[in-house]
Structures are given as structure tokens and as C-alpha cells.
Amino acid sequence: MKLSFTTLGCPDWELDLIIRRAAEYGFDAIDFRGVAGEMNIYKLPAFAESARQTRDRIKDAGLEVSCFSSSVKVFSREMMESQLLEVEAYAKLCAIFETPYIRVFGGAIKSTGREEAVQIMVRHFHELGSVAKEYGAKLLLETHDDWTSCRYVRAVMEQVDPEAVGVLWDLHHPYRMAGEQPEDTWATLGRWIHYTHVKDSSVKPESGGQFQYCLAGEGDVPLEPMYRLLNRNGYEGYYTLEWEKKWHPELLEADIAFPQYVEYMRKLA
Predict the structure, then answer these.
(1) Domain 24-197+226-239, what architecture?
(2) 231-259 pLDDT, tens per residue?
(3) Which end is more exposed in the chain, N or C (fewer Cβ atoms within 10 Å of the end residue's Cβ)?
């Protein structure tokens, strides 16, 4: 089992602390989604002129970079130029850090019909994926926002270059938001799934149906059966904790959530 975490969970940590704690807690890798307040990390000196030194520091700590998580929303027609530049910036980092993946979102389709939205996604993935592929990287569409349901994601995946585009299965969202059973998600998307995000939540009776994120194994998302399903089907990718402290400051601190996650997951293996 390979474990990683996104840096959303430690939004105030500087790079040195991220690397040190990742190794200390027993992670295998880091998924970069911002560092110390800067979400576009390719703008930071550590990932620009000093990128190779940063790569070596991470390797020396016995770690890898499992993914660079971008803010790209593939559906967006208005931001295509800037998103091409963002994909290229992360793809260049992938080449330096020997990282295969760049996470992207689908984004909101607004009033566009689903069939048209799929074709827009396919066209945009052709452009964006070609840039990533040039540097040996692959874009991973996260099961999120208007692209949470597996049938919508499949409609896109069936029409894109599998060497340039794959799927990031956020274990939480299809189950919680779309009511999908894990077996159905895997049956529909398994051949394209290269990476996972792991998080847990529960719905309190007094919350009016709203869920609350919680520590791994303390909610009612079936994380253990999901792990068994993935393992049984030969999944060899990362299990990446997405502890959304950046967006939900009320969550427990990373120095509690991170080691708890490693302990929970290692017991499943």
C-alpha cells in the first residue's frame, strides 16, 4: 500500500516541515496542492529555479511526489489559454520530479446540455492532454463537481487519449454526493483509474442531511470495502488523504489527522 496526502491538509506548513512530517508519519509521497498559502506552487522559487534541489530533498527523505494537483477546470471555455499554461507549468515539474500525474477538475457545466458538455470536455482534453503528454505526464479527471457520477466520466474517457488522460477516483464524492456503490464506480471506470483520494464523513441526524468530514474510519463512508475492492482488482496506485483543512478550517490539525490516517490505512493492508 502506497500512502500520500495532499497539502490542502497543512495549508500553513512551509516546505521543510511538509517533507519532514511526511517522512516522520510514514507516508510514501506528497501530493502538492499549495504550499504556505500559494496554491500555484510553480510560482514558488522551490518549484521554479530551485526545483531540482527540492526534488533531491524529497528523494533524500525517502519520499516521492505522487501528483501535482492543479486548479484547472477542463470544461471552462473562457480560461483555456491560462489553463494550457498551467498544465504546461505542472507538466514541466512532472518531468523534473518524475511524477506521472496532474489532477484536473471537470468543472461546472452550467446551462449546457450533458451531451454537448461531454464533447466540449473531449475537445479540451485533446488540447490539454497533448501538452501534458509531451512531458510524459497524464491528466487525471477527479470524480468531482458536475463530473462526479461515473456515467458522465465514462462518456468522456471513452473518447480521449488514454495515454494522456485518466481518472482520479475520489472515494468520497460518488458515494456521498451521487449515491453510487463502489462496485458500480469501479465497474464503470476501473480501467481508467490511476489514483485515489481518501476521506471520510458522516451525516448527523440534526444536520438536515449535511455531511461532516471526520477522521478516516470514524464516518460511514465504506473505506475498508473500497480498499478491498481496489486491492482485489489489482490497483497499485496511491491512497491519498485529502484532508481539506484549507477549505474547512474547523477540521482537526494535520499533526492529528495525518498520523491517524497512516495508522488506519496500514491496518487495512
Answers:
(1) Alpha-Beta Barrel (3.20)
(2) 999 999 999 999 999 999 999 999 999 99
(3) C
